[in-house]
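User: Okay, second chain of the day. Same drill as before: sequence in, structure tokens out.
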Amino acid sequence: TFPFMAPEVLVASDKLPYLPGACDVWSCGVILLEMLCGLHQISRMFGWGKTAKASMDKHARIVQYFGDETGLKQVLECRFGAAEPSLEVLLAGMLQPKLDCRLQAREMAASSWTAAE
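Assistant: Same drill. Structure tokens below.
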């Protein structure tokens, strides 16, 4: 469901390959953000309401917002004051709209925030 869908899924076409691992990393990033900041965090950030539907406009806003790490950093600072740098790096990597810059699943799993002890 939207906004757990990776940005590339919102504009899917035959020209773009579907990379399930990258999509899963995005979804895990949204889940982690919601665990930290509360349910429907992305929808609240953009004022979309709890039942937001996917659209090209929403896709563009997500790509613009998460393409610039300052927005995510502000959300975390509002919630926690100063967020731990490793958390900022993890979430920014998981919620990176550019596929070639998004963390891979093994990189995400190696983080102290997601690694099993």
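The first helix runs from residue 7 to 10.

User: Thanks, on to the next one.
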